[in-house]
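[Discussion] Sanity-checking designs against the backbone

I'm trying to build intuition for which residues belong where. Below is a structure token string of 305 positions. I'd appreciate it if someone posts a full sequence so I can compare it with mine line by line.
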């Protein structure tokens, strides 16, 4: 791979996002009244222990977030991980144990399980896509089709599932979409894909260079004629939108003839049924919005010990 987008790992920026999400979740659940049911039924001095258990097989993601959840809710809660993010687990696997005041354990339970279930569901679906293309030398990427406010966490889960992160936002890479060109055409400008690439290259020359290299420039094309035209401008990546496998193979051949340094990304309606054939066309990248927008939460529960 000639260039790569920033990849999301567990760091201070991710912790800050997680802390904000958790506070919002606690406010949503408790407001000013607190946990009325638990407070009425459980003695304030009671302590206990519970196991966080996967009800189904999958891939774990979000254990550092789980640790943050219990600590942020009540520092007296003890957290002991029994697995690691990115691990494949079977139904019945214990992911972590928690111990402390029973009132706090009951009140934090749903937020904790929602968080782990959502992130582990993304990691599990991502692993299925990654396994479906093996052993082809192609990377599976996420998109910006994420839950508002959860982007770093969801992209982190994609990484734990073995996928790769596309750009984090509009600020950290150039992606010229068909709508950019359509807007220019509607305004009377004959902006070709190649001209658009050259224009943004000039624009980012005056911007501060990203650490480790210049900003990635990617452009979306819908036809092989557009691909031929844009390769001369030297984009880093060309996104091939909604092209069937036969056309993707032609696109790879065109690229190989004239611009081997440009990488090709297939995108648009890709499913677990179709991705293996797409991977065999020779593209280097496949982006799949479903990794985040269609992942089903992994079923995770709390078993009292």
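Best answer:
Here's mine. Compare freely.
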């Amino acid at each position: 791979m000639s260039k790569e987008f920033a990849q999301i790992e567990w760091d201070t920026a991710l912790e800050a996002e997680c802390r904000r999400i958790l506070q919002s979740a606690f406010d949503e659940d408790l407001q000013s009244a607190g946990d009325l049911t638990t407070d009425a039924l459980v003695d304030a001095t009671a302590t206990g222990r519970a196991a966080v258990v996967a009800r189904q097989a999958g891939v774990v993601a979000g254990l550092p977030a789980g640790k943050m959840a219990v600590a942020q809710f009540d520092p007296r809660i003890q957290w002991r991980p029994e697995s690691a993010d990115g691990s494949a687990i079977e139904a019945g696997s214990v992911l972590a144990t928690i111990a402390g005041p029973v009132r706090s354990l009951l009140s934090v339970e749903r937020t904790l399980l929602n968080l782990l279930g959502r992130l582990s569901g993304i990691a599990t679906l991502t692993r299925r896509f990654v396994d479906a293309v093996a052993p082809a030398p192609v990377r599976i990427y996420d998109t910006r089709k994420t839950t508002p406010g959860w982007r770093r966490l969801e992209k982190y889960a994609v990484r734990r599932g073995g996928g790769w992160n596309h750009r984090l936002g509009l600020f950290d890479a150039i992606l010229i979409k068909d709508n950019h060109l359509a807007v220019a055409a509607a305004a009377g400008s004959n902006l070709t894909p190649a001209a658009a690439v050259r224009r943004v290259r000039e624009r980012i020359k005056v911007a501060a260079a990203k650490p480790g290299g210049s900003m990635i420039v990617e452009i979306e094309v819908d036809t092989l004629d557009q691909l031929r035209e844009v390769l001369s401008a030297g984009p880093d990546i060309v996104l091939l939108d909604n092209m069937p496998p036969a056309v993707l193979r032609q696109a790879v051949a065109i690229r190989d003839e004239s611009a081997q340094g440009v990488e090709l990304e297939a995108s648009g309606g890709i499913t677990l049924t179709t991705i293996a054939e797409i991977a065999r066309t020779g593209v280097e990248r496949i982006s799949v919005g479903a990794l985040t927008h269609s992942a089903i939460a992994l079923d995770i529960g709390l078993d009292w010990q």
